[in-house]
Design brief:
Helix content is 32%, strand content 15%. With 239 residues, the protein is α+β, with helices and mostly antiparallel strands. A hairpin with a 5-residue loop joins strand 6 and strand 7.
Length: 239
């Protein structure tokens, strides 16, 4: 999402509160919501604008489309630990929407644990946070609640999904947006109520799949490193 007057963009990393961010800040942006198929315009939608060609556009794509002026921009994004994010993505409603006999689309509830083969395919097919933020071209170490500099000259600011409201307030304050009427959070409901209960017997396998993939490098965006720390931290997320 682009905010040309404030010289900033928001990089929407899937399953990091980006839809709620859009509800809060779309009115200030240069973009508009567009829908098709099963998209409802609230929890599922696309974005379009002069420099925004897709909702999950990468930092590198913004840099290319905006050009030399991007050097004066700040690119914001929320970060979420990779194992947690990929499991959330697996159960994301957009993956389980089905056409209804009477017309329209409805959520097909899930009651079975993650299929490991399907999960590994999903993990392989989706961009990491590092990919979306073009980390290979960022100087220094980028971590949550810190910023670094992209090769384009743009500042990259990484906000913490674990404290979503604080991140939203930080973005609003730094860019002069009034959030006194911040909308209530509407959760983009998962296709299951308790992914931990469904997957308790295979958490180590799921963790290994993510951490051995290109998403594993995203753990460096957080303080806790190492496979044991990742697994223990993820278990704690459900307590």
């Amino acid at each position: 999402m682009q905010f040309a007057a404030q010289k900033c963009v928001f990089i929407h990393v899937p399953k990091t509160g980006g839809n709620f961010f859009t509800r809060c800040f779309l009115r200030f942006s240069d973009d508009a919501i567009v829908t098709s198929g099963h998209q409802d315009g609230t929890d599922r939608f696309e974005l379009s604008g002069d420099a925004t060609k897709s909702k999950h556009q990468t930092l590198a794509e913004y840099s290319q489309l905006i050009g030399p002026a991007f050097a004066e921009y700040t690119a914001y994004a929320f970060a979420r630990p990779p194992v947690e994010r990929m499991i959330s993505l697996y159960y994301s409603p957009h993956r389980w929407m089905r056409a209804q006999e009477g017309g329209g689309f409805g959520l097909d509830p899930r009651s079975e644990p993650i299929n490991l083969e399907e999960f590994e395919t999903l993990v392989s097919a989706n961009k990491s946070i590092s990919d979306l933020l073009d980390i290979k071209n960022v100087s220094g170490r980028l971590t949550v609640n810190k910023s670094a500099r992209h090769a384009s000259g743009a500042r990259v600011s990484l906000l913490d999904f674990a404290d979503l409201r604080h991140g939203l307030e930080t973005f609003g304050r730094e860019n002069g947006f009034d959030l006194t009427d911040m909308p209530g959070k509407k959760v983009n409901s998962s296709a299951v109520n308790d992914p931990m209960k469904l997957n308790t017997g295979q958490m180590r396998d799921l963790t290994n799949i993510v951490m051995r993939s290109h998403h594993g490098k995203d753990q460096k965006l957080f303080r806790e490193n190492g496979l044991k720390g990742v697994f223990d931290g993820f278990i704690g997320w459900f307590r």
